[in-house]
From TrEMBL:
<dbReference type="InterPro" id="IPR033704">
    <property type="entry name" value="dUTPase_trimeric"/>
</dbReference>
<dbReference type="Pfam" id="PF22769">
    <property type="entry name" value="DCD"/>
</dbReference>
<dbReference type="InterPro" id="IPR036157">
    <property type="entry name" value="dUTPase-like_sf"/>
</dbReference>
<dbReference type="InterPro" id="IPR011962">
    <property type="entry name" value="dCTP_deaminase"/>
</dbReference>
<keyword id="KW-0546">Nucleotide metabolism</keyword>
<protein>
    <submittedName>
        <fullName>dCTP deaminase</fullName>
        <ecNumber>3.5.4.13</ecNumber>
    </submittedName>
</protein>
<keyword id="KW-0378">Hydrolase</keyword>
<dbReference type="GO" id="GO:0008829">
    <property type="term" value="F:dCTP deaminase activity"/>
</dbReference>
Length: 178
């Protein structure tokens, strides 16, 4: 079951759902709009290596925005910190942003119960596109979970700002065993 807008508001107010800051104007019939934060990270190596940490450079978005370039992956973040120990969150790009040719979260929309923090956004434009801090870029839906719950305690817990991949950390136990 998906939470309706009024239930999202009720859950945010009674603590079952954390959205900080919470703005009732961002509540939709069955989702909550999230805004683009102030920083973008870009990988600086010509080849990204899943077995190693990859260097990034961080860009700060100002009032004039920033032009995203096709063929580049930008890691953004939500302005809001969002999480819940009760509901399963899914984040998708807003249709208005998709109509501008920006792919948001096309491969990793599902969040874990128990994650709390700013969400890292994987942004890829089809055409050059100027984005601005604070623009509504995505929407999060919340689903009711059934069954026992193991709260998320992973490597991205409490994230603030864009987080590069830490896939290499998943390989550490395997590498040590070989």
């Amino acid at each position: 079951m998906i939470l309706t807008g009024p239930e999202i508001t009720a859950a945010a107010l009674d603590g079952r759902l954390r959205i900080d800051p919470f703005d009732p104007e961002q509540v939709n019939p069955n989702s909550y709009n999230v805004r683009l934060g102030t920083r973008l990270a870009v990988y600086t190596s010509p080849v990204i290596d899943a077995h190693r940490p990859n260097p990034t450079t961080t860009l700060t978005l100002g009032g004039d925005g920033y032009v995203l370039t096709p063929g580049e992956l930008y890691l953004g973040h939500t302005f809001e910190q969002v999480g819940s120990n009760h509901f399963v969150p899914l984040l998708f790009g807003r249709s208005s942003v998709g109509r501008l040719g920006l792919f948001v979260e096309i491969t990793a929309p599902i969040g874990d119960i128990g994650f709390h923090g700013q969400w890292t956004l994987m942004l890829t434009p089809v055409r050059p596109l100027r984005v601005y801090p604070g623009m509504e870029i995505g929407q999060i839906m919340f689903f009711v979970a059934t069954g026992p719950v193991d709260l998320y305690a992973g490597k991205y817990q409490g994230s603030l700002g864009p987080q590069p991949s830490r896939a290499w950390q998943d390989l550490l136990p395997q590498a040590a065993a070989s």
